[in-house]
TrEMBL record:
<comment type="similarity">
    <text>Belongs to the short-chain dehydrogenases/reductases (SDR) family.</text>
</comment>
<dbReference type="InterPro" id="IPR036291">
    <property type="entry name" value="NAD(P)-bd_dom_sf"/>
</dbReference>
<protein>
    <submittedName>
        <fullName>Short-chain dehydrogenase</fullName>
    </submittedName>
</protein>
<dbReference type="GO" id="GO:0016491">
    <property type="term" value="F:oxidoreductase activity"/>
</dbReference>
<dbReference type="InterPro" id="IPR002347">
    <property type="entry name" value="SDR_fam"/>
</dbReference>
<dbReference type="Pfam" id="PF13561">
    <property type="entry name" value="adh_short_C2"/>
</dbReference>
<dbReference type="InterPro" id="IPR020904">
    <property type="entry name" value="Sc_DH/Rdtase_CS"/>
</dbReference>
<keyword id="KW-0560">Oxidoreductase</keyword>
Length: 249
């Protein structure tokens, strides 16, 4: 088991990539903190892990609130005593709204969750990861690697995440902490499937993705585990594309 006796925090662990990754970490022996703003879905993830006689624990978090993120890390340490991996995954989308139609409220929400949430997580977790020579993984996006047709706030937030990965990798290396990110393309999660224009989005994703399909959340989880594992011991400051070739075009 690659993560036996390791303590892992997964934000946004109640669904999608977060749920799949929490389950994968638990399968590999980790003690998983499933952190989410949605208690119901997060507890469903915990139950799925418990059903396999593996260890998971729910802690509420609103990643756009620094105090809430601090409390998440403090509660994790109080429960498990140490922290080895912090997967900063919680995110929201803006449904492709262009800049001139983006309200102040939408901008603040997307930046607050997607970018500030990553910053708050890093600030809270890094001192404790230094004690275990642990690592952080951030969920960026293909939107962090190039402009999209719309979605000014989302694209800006994910470019910021990619920049944070590079900066933190340089800052944390002295403490033996690695910092990386993943850049998924289209992933079949409830965020996409519940969109009113899902058929249109699906057609677009298939057209821009050489593999011609959405990824399943589990196909993103495995690269996250790789980056967090000893197999990636000389990888830091990298945003790994997991996009079916989207950004190869």
């Amino acid at each position: 088991m690659k993560f036996k006796n390791k303590t892992v925090i997964v934000t946004g662990g109640g669904s999608g990539i977060g749920r799949a990754t929490a389950i994968a970490f638990a399968r590999e022996g980790a003690k998983v903190v499933v952190a989410d703003i949605n208690e119901e879905t997060a507890r469903e993830t915990v139950a799925l892990i418990h059903a396999k006689a593996q260890l998971a624990h729910f802690i509420y978090v609103n990643v756009s609130d620094a105090n809430s993120v601090n409390a998440l890390v403090d509660s994790t340490l109080a429960t498990f005593g140490h922290l080895d991996v912090y997967f900063s995954n919680a995110a929201v989308i803006d449904t492709g709204i262009p800049c001139i139609e983006t309200t102040d409220a939408l901008w603040s929400k997307v930046i607050g969750v997607n970018l500030s949430g990553c910053f708050y997580g890093a600030r809270a977790a890094l001192p404790h990861l230094a004690k275990t020579k642990g690592n952080m993984v951030f969920t960026a996006s293909v939107a962090s690697l190039g402009a999209m047709a719309g979605g000014a706030s989302y694209t800006a937030s994910k470019y910021g995440v990619a920049g944070l990965v590079n900066q933190l990798a340089c800052e944390a290396a002295i403490d033996g902490v690695r910092v990386n990110g993943i850049a998924p393309g289209g992933v079949l999660t409830n965020i996409f499937s519940e969109m009113s224009n899902f058929a249109e989005v699906e057609t677009m994703v298939r057209a821009v993705t050489p593999l011609g399909r959405f990824a399943q959340p589990e196909e993103i989880a495995e690269p996250v585990l790789f980056l967090a594992s000893d197999a990636a011991s000389f990888i830091t400051g990298t945003v790994l594309r997991v996009d079916g070739g989207w950004r190869s075009k």
